[in-house]
Write a structure and sequence with these properties.
- The chain has a single domain, classed as Rossmann fold, CATH 3.40.50.
- By secondary structure, the chain is an alpha/beta fold.
- The protein is about 40% helix and about 25% strand.
């Protein structure tokens, strides 16, 4: 029988900045879900429905994404502090499961490393811990269209045309009307996304290896960003890490949502 789980939108104010989030509510065990770059909390609607009432899915529009306000910086510390503020706001002081995809996976990893007392288990969906020149080239190939995108336009059609064929497919269902009602905007500012990607550069092995809670790595075996040898090393070097390889590219949560949902559900059931 299909789940009737639904997500309700709320807003938390942090230092005068709005952080919008979705919450499935209920008495289920809490799971904090962090989306990827250029995405938003609604990406986890299917996961919330799949997990049903046994799990309370809490998914923020991370800073600069969706309905959340833009932020002054997009480094790990800022993303992690937002996540902690949300958990505190909801009164979730006991450890929760933290799941993240891509950018969200990196943020989840750093949250678990910096605050292990707040994280019951970690789920990393195709987020690498090595972002160097070869990875940056792959990211540029994936998201190079950002440089030519417009943040606002008088009409949806103009905004989509400026986004180009790749960008328009990515944002078509997520465009927002401007508060004035005169025009439309993207669900993110292109420059913010470039800044966010740049802030991810470097070696994140220390953060990945710092935690000792149970972990799951869901790996897209044809990923443009997480190489097989890196995925193998992530599993081998971190005790208590399970591995779920799925055939697909980096956009696995959108191209094979069922596979991702089933891998996550199986891991959660074993906790």
């Amino acid at each position: 029988m299909p789940s009737t789980t639904s997500l309700t939108r709320h807003t938390l104010t942090i230092d005068g900045r709005a952080l919008s989030y979705l919450d499935s509510g209920g008495a289920g065990r809490p799971l904090l879900a962090l989306h990827g770059g250029m995405s938003e909390a609604l990406a986890f609607a299917g996961l919330a429905a799949h997990l049903g009432p046994a799990w309370r899915v809490i998914a923020p529009d991370q800073r600069g994404h969706g309905d959340s306000d833009r932020a002054p910086d997009y480094g790990r510390e800022g993303y992690v502090s937002d996540a902690l503020a949300l958990l505190d706001h909801l009164g979730l002081r006991t450890p929760v499961v933290v799941l993240g995809y891509s950018l969200g996976g990196l943020n989840a990893c750093h949250l678990a490393a910096a605050h292990p007392e707040r994280v019951r288990a970690l789920i990393d969906i195709d987020a690498t811990v090595e972002i160097h020149s070869s990875t940056e080239d792959a990211v540029h190939d994936l998201f190079g269209f950002l440089g030519g995108m417009r943040y606002t336009a008088p009409t949806r059609e103009e905004l989509l045309a400026a986004a180009g064929p790749v960008g328009s497919r990515l944002v078509e269902q997520a465009l927002r009307p401007l508060p004035s009602g005169e025009g439309w905007r993207l669900p993110f500012h292109p420059q913010d996304m470039l800044d966010s990607a740049a802030a991810c550069r470097g070696d994140h092995w220390d953060a990945w290896l710092a935690g000792d809670c149970p972990a799951l790595l869901v790996h897209a075996t044809r990923s443009q960003t997480l190489r097989q040898e890196t995925a193998d090393a992530m599993v081998a070097r971190r005790a208590g890490t399970s591995y779920a390889p799925l055939d697909g590219d980096h956009f696995l949560p959108f191209t094979d949502p069922r596979g991702v949902h089933e891998a996550v559900a199986a891991f959660l059931a074993a906790l």
